[in-house]
Amino acid sequence: MAKFLSEEWIKQYAEVWNNDEELVSGLKGFNATIKYFIEGSDQPPVYIKVEDGKVVEAGLAEEGKEYDFEMWASIDNWKKLATGELGPKKAMMFRKLKFKGDMATAMAKMGPFSKSLQDMSQVPTDW
User: Taking residues 68-78, what's their average pLDDT?
Assistant: First the structure.
């Protein structure tokens, strides 16, 4: 069991992502770097690099590096997002999930984006 959003966890999440055919096919042609972190935590941020819908890199985010998208929330809100108790649209609207990046692209990919957050619950996690 890996600590949520640790380097070990994000690498396991990348495997879950790549094994989700619905998610990968929904993001066909999508390329981006995505940084994730816990609001108010000293834990270092992590990232994934997506090419044509598949994660090709995952690990610790580099300080000072620009990422196409950044997402952050409290640990409680991350847990609610992963379990589906809180949807990403509602979470962003009420600022429970903070987001930085091209909003038009995010909205166009909301289905797969929601699926990617729900896939977080498939990683054995130490919250």
Answer: 96
